[in-house]
Amino acid sequence: MYVCICNGITDSEIRDAAARGVGTLEELTMRTGCGSGCGSCIDVAREILAEARAPAIRAFPLRLAVAA
Ligand code: FES
After folding, report:
1. Do the domain assignments include residue 65?
2. What pLDDT, on the 0 to 100 scale, is given for residue 55?
3. pLDDT, tens digit, for every residue of 10-66?
4. Nearest Cα to Cα of residue 23 among 58, 50, 55, 62
5. pLDDT of 61
6. What is the CATH number of the domain that holds 16?
7. How far is the CA of 6 from the centre of ligand 1 (A)?
8. Ligand 1 atom nearest residue 37's Cα
9. Residue 55 covered by a domain
10. What is the pLDDT of residue 64?
11. Looking at residue 44, what is its pLDDT?
12. Atom 4 (ligand 1): residue with closest C-alpha?
């Protein structure tokens, strides 16, 4: 499914970018152009990116620092 019509970016390409380490919308825009035109795809692109990144975040959760 096309997510970004302006740049021809699909949901598969966003998931692929997430699998390659893209973690933020800004990085996705830099690497694919998604969201760099009219901007109407940004909310959906952000949701797909977050959904695609969720397993990686669960696999490697950050530990909270505890003050001594
Ligand atoms: S649809 Fe993505 S920038 Fe226009």
Report:
1. no
2. 74
3. 999 999 999 999 999 999 999 999 999 999 999 999 999 999 998 766 666 666 666
4. 50
5. 64
6. 1.10.10.1100
7. 4
8. 3
9. yes
10. 64
11. 98
12. 38
| Atom number of ligand 1 nearest to Cα 6 | 4
On whether residue 15 sits in a domain, the answer given is yes
Q: Is residue 44 part of a domain?
A: yes
CB atoms within 10 A of CB 17: 22
Tell me, using a 6 A CB cutoff, whether residue 35 lines ligand 1: yes
Residue 2 phi, psi (nearest 5): -75, 130
Retrieve residue 59's tokens.
């696999």
Q: Does the beta carbon of 4 lie inside 6 Å of ligand 1?
A: yes
DSSP per-residue string spanning 7-34: TTEEHHHHHHHHHTT--SHHHHHHHH-T
pLDDT at residue 59, rounded to an integer: 64
- Residue 51: the pLDDT is 95
